[in-house]
């Protein structure tokens, strides 16, 4: 299989990252390339991309992009990495800024990006069989392809797959942008193709013009057909379920691997995890100023401090959890009320809590390696990466059974020796508390806990399985 695939996204590691989308764009394309596909990725050339990557870029082409009544410059630069060509759309007016998103002209910035991607393809000599778009930033690409660019024979027959990483963020703008920014006939709004709830909706546009829609876990693909999770698009998704599927994201084991991790004191495998984690726990405790207490479990939270992550449940019960013989280590930033809460918790329990209100990649790796239990009681979770990392490092997840958490964390049964974590169903603080206490009770039995740790570390959520599912989908979309 040597199909040509172009991934279009707003971010990708190692070049630029604000969330899990970037991790996917760093890992999935290289895995597909290793399986023989001809894979390229294109993202904007942001001003905040590290200089070492800018220095490595080569200019491929330059030209003009038509956007409604405007003509804007575009440049295309390239880096080859891991068998993948990474292209960068260069326009300083749109992308030389302090952050990636959150500007008043985001509608224009990403409409321009979509047109620039299509405009560049003949110039760089790459005609993909499939353009694989990701999240709202790329929602207009299929629209432009099938309502405008299709007139050129070069573009005819190109298929579009559209992946929803998080339905909550949709790119919603007033109807006046149809003519002024998007530059396409008003009928595409009035017939509902680009419209939702009276506004232009980039996410819906991406779904309408896609040949197939994916999201990042099978359970989330079902959940978004319900109003609670559907963010006002559940009706459209229900009506088009025949072209929607869920494929779980994988974990990049080149980055997250206790056997090779350069950030942790003692590397370990499933066979010597107990001793390795003991050394890493001692090292973490000393560096964070917590007492070194053998036999006392560390509970970890590595998270964006956001309501969707279930932090209201945690704040409700954590003082009671800390009545047990445990320690808690938090790494994350976010809403001020949660930052203040965890600072206060650490001041009330200075020998039991380390609240690190920051994001430090090295510290996060050390916390995964050292911790025994990992908390992730999300209100909703399309896929989730943190629980996959925790499993890889033998930190046992305690999660709410939603989205990708339900698909990757299965309840432990000590009698059958099955399962790799602890789950609860309802978004309820007491259910979380009882589940944590069940995990702590299991921790007291070394033999049983060792079996659970082994199950967790032997869970296979590498990108290999996910890439195989995508390759099967590509063949289906291309009629092979």
Task: Describe this structure as you would to a colleague.
- α12 crosses α15 (361-370), α13 runs parallel beside α14 (336-348) and α13 crosses α18.
- The mean pLDDT is 97.
- The chain has helices at 20-34, 51-56, 92-95, 106-124, 141-147, 177-182, 187-190, 202-208, 218-223, 227-230, 234-239, 273-288, 311-321, 336-348, 361-370, 386-392, 403-408, 429-443, 446-457, 463-477, and strands at 4-8, 38-44, 58-67, 70-81, 84-90, 130-134, 159-164, 172-173, 195-196, 199-201, 212-215, 244-246, 298-302, 327-331, 353-356, 373-376, 396-400, 422-424.
- The chain is of the alpha/beta class.
- It has 2 domains: 4-250 and 464-477, 3-Layer(aba) Sandwich (Rossmann fold); 273-460, Rossmann fold (3-Layer(aba) Sandwich), CATH 3.40.50.
- The strands form 3 sheets. It has a 9-stranded mixed beta sheet, with helices on both faces. The chain has a 6-stranded parallel beta sheet with strand order 15-14-13-16-17-18, with helices on both faces.
- 48% of the residues are buried.
- The protein contains 20 helices and 18 strands.
What is the element layout, followed by pairings?
Elements: E1 4-8, H1 20-34, E2 38-44, H2 51-56, E3 58-67, E4 70-81, E5 84-90, H3 92-95, H4 106-124, E6 130-134, H5 141-147, E7 159-164, E8 172-173, H6 177-182, H7 187-190, E9 195-196, E10 199-201, H8 202-208, E11 212-215, H9 218-223, H10 227-230, H11 234-239, E12 244-246, H12 273-288, E13 298-302, H13 311-321, E14 327-331, H14 336-348, E15 353-356, H15 361-370, E16 373-376, H16 386-392, E17 396-400, H17 403-408, E18 422-424, H18 429-443, H19 446-457, H20 463-477
Parallel strand pairs: 1-2, 1-6, 2-5, 6-7, 7-11, 11-12, 13-14, 13-16, 14-15, 16-17, 17-18
Antiparallel strand pairs: 3-4, 4-5, 8-10, 9-10
């Amino acid at each position: 299989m040597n199909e040509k695939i172009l991934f279009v996204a707003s971010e990708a590691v190692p070049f630029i990252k604000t969330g899990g989308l970037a991790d996917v764009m760093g890992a999935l394309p290289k895995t597909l390339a290793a399986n023989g596909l001809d894979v390229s990725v294109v993202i904007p050339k942001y001003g905040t991309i590290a200089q070492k990557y800018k220095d490595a870029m080569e200019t491929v082409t330059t030209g003009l992009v038509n956007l409604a009544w405007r003509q804007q410059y575009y440049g295309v630069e390239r880096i080859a990495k891991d068998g993948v060509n990474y292209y960068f759309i260069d326009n300083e007016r749109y992308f030389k800024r302090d952050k990636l998103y959150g500007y008043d002209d985001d509608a224009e910035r990403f409409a321009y990006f979509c047109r620039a991607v299509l405009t560049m393809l003949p110039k760089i000599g790459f005609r993909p069989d499939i353009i694989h778009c990701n999240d709202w930033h790329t929602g207009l690409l299929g629209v432009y392809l099938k309502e405008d660019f299709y007139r050129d024979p070069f573009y005819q027959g190109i298929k579009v797959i559209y992946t929803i990483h998080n339905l909550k963020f949709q790119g919603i703008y007033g109807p006046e942008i149809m003519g002024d920014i998007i530059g396409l006939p008003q009928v595409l709004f009035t017939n509902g193709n680009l419209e939702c709830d009276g506004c232009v909706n980039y996410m819906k546009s991406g779904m309408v013009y896609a040949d197939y829609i994916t999201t990042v876990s099978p359970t989330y693909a079902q959940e978004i057909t319900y109003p609670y999770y559907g963010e006002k698009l559940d009706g459209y998704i229900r009506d088009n379920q025949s072209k929607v599927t869920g494929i779980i994201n994988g974990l990049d084991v080149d980055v997250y691997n206790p056997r090779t991790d350069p950030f942790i004191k003692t590397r370990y495998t499933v066979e010597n995890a107990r001793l390795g984690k003991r050394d890493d726990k001692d090292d973490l405790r000393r560096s964070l100023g917590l007492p070194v207490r053998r036999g006392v479990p560390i509970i970890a939270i590595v998270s964006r401090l956001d309501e969707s992550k279930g932090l209201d449940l945690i704040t409700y019960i954590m003082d009671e959890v800390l009545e047990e013989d445990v320690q808690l280590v938090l790494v994350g930033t976010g809403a001020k009320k949660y930052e203040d809460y965890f600072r206060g918790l650490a001041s009330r329990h200075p020998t039991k809590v380390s609240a690190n209100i920051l994001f430090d990649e090295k510290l996060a790796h050390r916390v995964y390696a050292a911790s025994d239990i990992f908390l992730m009681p999300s209100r909703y979770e399309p896929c989730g990466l943190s629980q996959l990392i925790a499993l890889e490092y033998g930190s046992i997840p305690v999660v709410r059974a939603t989205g990708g958490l339900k698909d990757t964390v299965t309840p432990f049964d000590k009698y059958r020796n099955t399962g790799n974590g602890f789950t609860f169903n309802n978004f309820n603080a007491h259910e979380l508390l009882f589940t944590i206490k069940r995990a702590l009770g299991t921790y007291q039995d070394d033999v049983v806990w060792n079996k659970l740790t082994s199950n967790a570390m032997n869970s296979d959520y590498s990108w290999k399985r996910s890439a195989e599912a995508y390759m099967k989908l590509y063949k289906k979309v291309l009629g092979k």
